[in-house]
Input
Amino acid sequence: APSGSAVSSTDPALDPAAMDALQAMGAHLRTLKDFQVEVTTTDEDVLEDGQKVQYSGVTNLLAQMPTRLRAEVVNERHDRMWLYDGKEFTLFARRLNYYATVPAPPTIGQLADTLETDHGFTVPLADLFRWGAAGRIADGITEATDFGDSAVAGTTCRHYGFRQDDLDWQIWIQRGDHPLPRKLVITTKTDEARPQH
Output
């Protein structure tokens, strides 16, 4: 999801508070030099008959900006590790006992873009490396809404909703001096069943 507030605040569909919160969160993320994230995930697939099936997992990510990344994704479908040292990228699929190493660009953000463009997948939690980055603006956002205060795992957050052409997404941003994303829900609009992730 793009970030920034390069959108006119005169558009009534774009709540300025929501756009400013997204920009502040992105700016804060760009100040982090070393961080660790553990995420519990739930994904929905839609079967041919329209039934939705959910599967859960855990993603652990360690990053040293801008050139070091170790991510591990374990769910009902995958057990994979991503390793990146600023020069090479390695993907290890444990269940398949398979790995591949390729030359990589010099930053995690560029790696995410290259993997998506050239290979059809990206690093886990790629938005953490995109929000607030130079050149990432909000031109894809058509609606932005501030839903008010909420709590995520006991942490006070502000709940926002954003709409784009092919997806809706909600984000809960931690209140206070460290505006970190605490929860994210993405709804795919290109599928009539509207699966969520």
The CA atoms of residues 130 and 181 lie 13 Å apart. The longest helix spans residues 16-31. The chain has two helices and ten strands.
